[in-house]
Design goal:
Layout (H helix, E strand, L loop, with lengths): L5 H50 L4 H7 L7 E6 L4 E4 L13 E7 L2 E9 L3 E8 H49 L19 H48 L3 H31 L9 E4 H19 L2 E5 L5 E4 L1 H18 L5 E9 L2 E8 L30 H11 L3 E6 L5 E6 L2
Parallel strand pairs: 7-9
Antiparallel strand pairs: 1-2, 1-5, 3-4, 4-5, 6-8, 9-10, 10-12, 11-12
Helix pairs in contact: 1-3, 4-5, 5-8, 6-7, 7-8
Length: 433
């Protein structure tokens, strides 16, 4: 079990707390029992001295008992003038007469605890060696601590079992995850999880859900892209075969023109597919900077001017003053280019496309208006789907422009809406926060 393991750290913490608690309790019990034993010995000294004072004389049987060598107490009696008249047993260095009450005296390097009481004619003193008192007290105190020493290993085993029980839910979650393959993204079970583990599992489930959605989007994107690329590539193959079989120079020129147009459409489709992949949610965050929206729109209009000339469309921009936005230049230019390209391709040939930049209630806004057929209100949300075309047979687009534009708008925190245009066609509004 590694020291970096949660179970090991929990177990070590429990053992440290257990050891500290046992040490404090043992020390407290030891000192308490020592103090109580000392007090009990003092009480015995006092009671013995008072009992001898009250009975007046020592009976022969009592004198025999008091003279027992195994008895820890020594009884001495002096007359009022200090003459020794009794000692319970012989001793080389008996304590001298001490002050009345409890006292501690030192005789030839040995300490004695004494209690003295006086009567009108004599002084009675009961003494006990301090060393014996301490030995008996320490033994009693140690006996009080022994249960803790026996209990500590049991508590350690209990702590080990509790630590295993505590981390069991984490082990169960880890086992569940380790048994899954890359395609198993179902939510992990949350029933019966502790409150501390449940947030982790819920976060994992949310991550699995996001991963599942992302994989589904990628699979759908790959399937749609393969489907969309199949037709132009097949057309290119057929146009190349027609070019090879062309009987005359005029036929070869027409086949070459058709092949070139097909290559351009395929190249544009691939370019839009790459742009859509880069604009998908979950990509790297954009490095935003302060830009003049009007100036950026002018640059995009210059790039799209050849397409406008080819369709005979009049381009115009209404922007009276600079409008500052927080955006990434390349991504925002791609967004505006897709909106303008969509308007040029679906507006009337020889018609007009108007762009307007202004600031409304502190929010920068771009409008792109065309004079084309527009989009019915009930279809405006669907046109943001990838590869969706309202009339596939009549339109040359790939159905990706608005999908790319919406993804880029979301990455900029902007809102894209489709409205009716004053020119009679479609108005696309891009509003920044």
């Amino acid at each position: 079990m590694s020291l970096n393991s949660m179970r090991a750290r929990l177990l070590l913490s429990l053992l440290a707390l257990l050891a500290a608690a046992a040490l404090v309790m043992g020390a407290s019990s030891y000192r308490s029992v020592l103090a109580e034993t000392e007090a009990m010995f003092d009480y015995q000294l006092r009671q013995m001295a008072l009992a001898l004072r009250d009975q007046g004389e020592i009976a022969p049987s009592q004198a025999h008992t008091l003279s027992d060598e195994q008895l820890d107490f020594v009884v001495q009696i002096w007359t009022a003038d200090g003459r020794s008249i009794y000692a319970s047993r012989e001793h080389a260095n008996l304590p001298a007469r001490a002050l009345l009450g409890l006292a501690e005296i030192n005789v030839a390097g040995q300490r004695w605890r004494t209690y003295s009481v006086a009567t009108p004619g004599r002084v009675i003193q009961v003494a006990q060696p301090v060393q014996i008192r301490q030995k008996l007290a320490a033994a009693a105190a140690l006996r009080s601590v022994l249960p803790l020493l026996w209990l500590a290993p049991l508590l350690a085993l209990l702590g080990w079992w509790l630590s295993a029980l505590t981390v069991a839910p984490l082990r169960a979650v880890a086992a569940e995850v380790s048994q899954r393959d890359a395609q198993a993204l179902a939510a992990l079970p949350t029933a019966g999880l502790p409150d501390e583990v449940a947030p982790l599992v819920k976060a994992l489930n949310a991550l699995l859900q996001r991963l599942g959605s992302s994989l589904d989007q990628q699979r759908a994107f790959v399937a749609d892209a393969a489907h969309e690329l199949r037709s132009p590539l097949t057309a290119l193959k057929l146009q190349a075969q027609l070019l090879q079989r062309a009987p005359s120079e005029a036929d070869r020129a027409a086949a070459m023109a058709a092949l070139t147009a097909g290559i351009e459409r395929a190249a544009r489709l691939v370019e839009q597919l790459l742009a859509l992949a880069r604009a998908e949610p979950g990509g790297p965050a954009l490095a935003l900077q302060t830009l003049d929206l009007s100036e950026l729109v002018r640059g995009v209009m210059a790039d799209c001017h050849p397409l406008a000339l080819a369709r005979g469309t009049e381009l115009s921009l209404h922007a009276d003053m600079p409008v500052q936005v927080q955006a990434e230049p390349t991504a925002l230019a791609m967004l505006v280019r897709n909106l303008l390209d969509n308007a040029l391709r679906h507006g009337k040939a020889g018609g007009q496309v108007e762009l307007s930049v202004s600031e409304i209630a502190g929010r920068p806004t771009l409008w792109v208006d065309d004079d084309g057929p527009g989009i019915p209100a009930n279809e405006r949300e669907r046109v943001f789907d990838r590869f969706y075309r309202r009339n596939p047979g009549a339109e040359t687009g790939s159905g990706l422009g608005l999908a790319i534009a919406r993804n880029l708008a979301e990455q900029h925190g902007a809102q894209l809406k489709l409205l009716d245009s004053p020119l009679g066609g479609l108005r696309v509004s891009l509003t920044f926060a």
